[in-house]
């Protein structure tokens, strides 16, 4: 694994625990890679890795390494992932796939090539592994919502409310690529595509930075990424999805909300209460219709049988545990893990279209998916 | 109508509006009765009554009066109601039926006698007319909950939180009969009996006064009624209901909550959100079970077709509008309105048993319903 | 009053009850006007009007009439309102002000002229009178939210979910002007302006019709209005508001939702639970921050002292009772009722800009408010 | 560790992860003990234990063992715990302390003796380590609720709803001691004592078994424990707490609910949403009072800084991670971990009083705490 900050800590938790809950192929947590020798050694000790290293190039060619998990910053994704795939290692990479569309395309191409050799790759849209959202996808795939029309996706946080909160690399376009757009709209958009199994055909978008200068080391520095983003997406099915994300929604801590309205039913979700799914079945008599709060902890629910008895809720971090489980099982069975790098690229293309639309005063941008990047239909 | 304080204002609203929403027999708001000539005259003007009077005895014998609505304090209920029934007037009386069991029994006897002459009577347990609770009763009667076992009823308010809140007649046993017990536990107990169509066979109860002295006109005065009450009720069906009421539940304003658990489903309700009913259908697959929030404003719902389009919620006061509607229709059809004085007496007996149990250290009290007071089965 | 359908029923309720709760100048419900003689006569009887008439022109010139309340369809608003103002009658008109911008401008001009003669006028954005929203406005005006940045407004209904639901005049652009946009986005936009006391400077919008043909009398007929609309609004203060409305949001019955995020606090609201306001105070220590559910029924709350004790919730219809109360008090004091026809025109201009933007592929439209239409600052 | 069923799995998770999040003394997961050699070996492999054994007596005397974690069934607690303490090992034992009061007393005596030798012991009331409840305790200890009066505790589950659900050892008094009472009322009662720092002086209780026979291997077998229990507890402070627990509350999965009402504020909690705390501060102006939903994931909150950024919720299992952390830190500092065996005994005494009261028709039982068992005041 490369990287041991927030995401490295979360991925380590997944690797450390997955085999205690799920039947997965045997593996070992071999090497943690980072830049600072002392820091990475301490991280390896703390998070359960046998060794540490500061040289990812050396590590990814070791014969005793079969899997590379990339939790390094986005601008490093392409180089490491392409090299690791070329070295014949299966690769899991944190989202977003890359900071630029060009890098993302190169990564998707490398993944396609590697796949033909049996080398697998996966992009870490971990919220696909929230049991409640996996259940939502099942219900939608079974037709329980009928024809989906109106979709509302939002991801609201508030960690940038304070205008005196200092400048960081995350607020600089050169290092971060974009702001709320790439960081959290990417999750919202991936969910829309995942849940509906649909494609985006048109995009209108808007970006805004509420606080344009923030305190830097030597005085005010310009914030060059968005604090908030808005978009409407036309989907191939005819549905329309709105997407709205913010880092200044005071009091909303980590609220990825999804509302999906079909002609036979609807789905509601909020990541702050991730063990719950709202579901309305519009085919029962009107007299008894209402949104149900399903506590998604029953043995019948996705991933849930591995955990605790009903009503004993699980935490955010196990979205990664499930991700790693599915990644390992796909590798073992020689199938493409989902979501693929191509799925990651698809989301990047939508994000790029939002930026293009915003730059041209919200005008609608047509999006055509190149045929070669269409991901294969996903398994259940 | 006799009385024009809180309940008089609410009942007036019902009389003033019922014919604008429901097809009821024609009637007029003829006389408002009260003690203070100027006050009652102003009240009549304000609330839509043609005249006012200070002499209820004279008014209840007037030939142009057919209905007497008693909103006077509880200690006056028996005398007025019995006299009005004897004068051949249909009587609606606010709950509780009376301050003492003896008075309640006399009223029930008077009602039985009057009924044989076609003179009807009704006790104002208005929450039976909350559309959501009427729907709950329908669902239970249809067997949607299966065998009901565990029932939880609570009525929580907080208007006595401040220990410096002054002494009033409501806190004196002589004038008020009891505290939270008669005032709000009566509603909770009536709901249990109404929703389940059941009878209480055993009672264990407890009463407590948290603030025993309060500021009076001439120094501290003793509070002689309960601030809170607890009871468990064994029902004839074998179900057990807990009842808990409080006037010191800080932050709970008017929270009558009901939870009814059967082997096929469950019901949740909170009066602070009275347009909503929680319903869980345990016969659907476990994977999609969950409490539904039914917004009880559809034309299919009890009373709702008369009001506004779906989702346009109604207020607390229309529990009385519905009560008056049902009272008028029962009179017109010559049938016994529900709940009857006997239903009111049944609740009084349970309240008396709670007091008896509390006085004997919570010991379980057997309750036998005298056969003559069994109310006739209620219509739909 | 002219019109006795849904809105006529709701306004009648307000006129019938306002004086029982509020101290307003004495008035009588004199004449109900409609097209069908028998229908309007029955309506007058049912809703408490002394007489009925089929000739609005004659009625608005009667000397015993001082107020005209227009609940007729939108295309009739301009003609009636202008004539009534010219006849020296105070005018209350249901929203939207008119079906076209030209008519709305003519009405605003007539209102300005009449005002100089002491003749008042008001547009019926009744949700300004929801106590919870009036409280929200107070809190915002007091600075409790600090600088407002991110605003989310949505109005979700579901009465057009069924594609077999028949064609009506409301789905035809000629008779209805627009669809969800004029009907419910107007409310959402007015709330944004009301709560923030702000102006719209830029608009990007989108309209969509999910079901383009519906069963008519003689086969399928084309639906020529929108089922759903999306917009982002830039406000003069720098805040950005998203607006999203739908008639196909299955399971959402009447859900006008508002989320207002400032740097010192936030507000949440949902019309389906209109007695409640969500409020987060970001100036208290983080450890104890959280959205409060304020039950807006305390004597301290706007309009609430007139009603019932705390926790006894009121219904949707009393937004009109409060509207009529404020209208009567403004007339009595010779001041301009709020919202004015100019406020209605302001909303119409935003709606027109949404349509213009949608027609030009969501491009951002600049909105400049002509100086003469700036409404005077509103009173408390 | 002894035992590897549900609780063994949960405790293993805690031991496996605690050092990745918290600074605790170094330790190793040395031996897992169970009865079935193959099963316990597989469990050790799965849950991260270096070895396995079937002989607890031998293991607890090993020199390389310093801590014994007892997850075996309740009837084995006393024997193992007393032996382990005698062998000088620190002991963590799952709740309930024991199946009988006599065993619990012997364990508390053994703990007192061992403590004088620096050997520590702890009873696993893990819900004291829910961050939201730890925050609640802080707020109460700081006086934010003022004088607490009315407390409501309930623990509702539904896994026994089906009358055809088979007989198990948990439903037999000889093996299980009691039913819902010992299993879940123990948690509710411990929370009341923990949160308030109070003592029980009087108890009235009731027990009920709704399904008295269940399918056994050879036909129906009698259920000899309670399905549900009710109690009211008088506390030394004068507060009164109701406790209600059920295994037949259809649709309630794991709902430990707490409501604590003081004269300056109130607390609400539900274990099904364990990252949230409801708090009402009654000292702010009434106009803005309301229950806040605090998402207890801020660095300022108990235990939370170790985990993820704000709004990234944790799961039920980390109540044990926190428990193990506090146990290790107490051992390292030579202080008594909390809750002590005496705390466990205190809860057992209340449970016994509920049974005694139930056996004598709910009569109130006086509870006197022997002076020698008063636990020392707990640290922050």
**Main interface pair?**
A-C, 42 and 42 residues
Order of helices and strands of chain A: HEHEHEHEHEHEHHEEEEEEEEEHHE
**What radius of gyration of chain A results from the CA coordinates?**
21 Å
In CATH terms, the superfamily of the largest domain in chain A is: Dihydrodipicolinate Reductase, domain 2
Number of strands of chain A: 16
Q: Give start-end ranges of low-pLDDT stretches of chain A.
A: 371-380
Question: How far apart, in Å, are the first and last alpha carbons of chain A?
Answer: 28 Å
The top level CATH class name of the largest domain in chain A: Alpha Beta
Question: What shape does the CA trace of chain A take?
Answer: globular
CATH topology title of the largest domain in chain A: Dihydrodipicolinate Reductase, domain 2
Assembly of the depicted chains = homotetramer
The order of strands across the largest sheet of chain A is 15-14-13-12-6-11-10-7-16
Total count of domains of chain A: 2
Protein structure class of chain A: alpha/beta
CATH architecture of the largest domain in chain A: 2-Layer Sandwich
Helix proportion range of chain A: 25-40%
Average pLDDT rating of chain A: 95
Largest sheet of chain A: 9 strands, mixed
């Amino acid at each position: 694994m490369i990287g041991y900050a927030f995401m490295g800590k979360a991925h380590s938790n997944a690797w450390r625990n997955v085999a205690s809950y799920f039947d997965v192929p045997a593996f070992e947590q071999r090497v943690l890679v980072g830049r600072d020798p002392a820091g990475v050694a301490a991280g390896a000790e703390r998070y359960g890795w046998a060794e540490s290293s500061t040289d990812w190039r050396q590590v990814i060619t070791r014969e005793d390494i079969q899997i590379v998990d990339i939790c390094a910053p986005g601008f490093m994704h392409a180089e490491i992932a392409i090299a690791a795939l070329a070295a014949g290692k299966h690769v899991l990479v944190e989202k977003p796939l890359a900071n630029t569309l060009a890098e993302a395309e190169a990564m998707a191409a490398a993944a396609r090539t590697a796949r033909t050799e049996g080398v697998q790759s996966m992009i870490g849209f971990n919220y696909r592994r929230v049991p409640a959202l996996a259940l939502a996808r099942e219900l939608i795939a079974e037709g329980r919502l009928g024809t989906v029309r109106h979709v509302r996706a939002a991801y609201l946080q508030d960690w940038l409310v304070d205008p005196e909160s200092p400048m960081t690399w995350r607020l600089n376009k050169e290092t971060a690529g974009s702001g709320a757009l790439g960081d959290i709209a990417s999750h919202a958009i991936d969910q829309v595509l995942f849940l509906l199994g649909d494609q985006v055909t048109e995009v209108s978008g808007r970006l805004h930075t509420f606080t344009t200068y923030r305190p830097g080391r030597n005085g005010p520095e310009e914030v060059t990424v968005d604090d908030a983003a808005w978009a409407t997406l036309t989907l191939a099915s005819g549905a329309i999805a709105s997407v709205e994300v913010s880092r200044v929604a005071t009091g909303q801590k980590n609220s990825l909300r999804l509302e999906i309205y079909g002609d036979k039913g609807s789905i509601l979700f909020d990541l702050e209460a991730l063990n719950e799914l709202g579901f309305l079945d519009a085919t029962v008599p009107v007299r008894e219709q209402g949104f149900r709060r399903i506590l998604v902890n029953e043995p019948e629910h996705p991933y849930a049988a591995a955990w605790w008895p009903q009503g004993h809720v699980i935490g955010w971090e196990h979205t990664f545990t499930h991700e790693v489980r599915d990644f390992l099982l796909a590798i073992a069975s020689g199938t493409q893990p989902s979501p693929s790098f191509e799925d990651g690229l698809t989301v990047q293309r939508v994000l790029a279209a939002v930026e293009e639309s915003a730059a041209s005063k919200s005008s609608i941008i047509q999006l055509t998916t190149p045929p070669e990047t269409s991901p294969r239909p996903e398994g259940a």
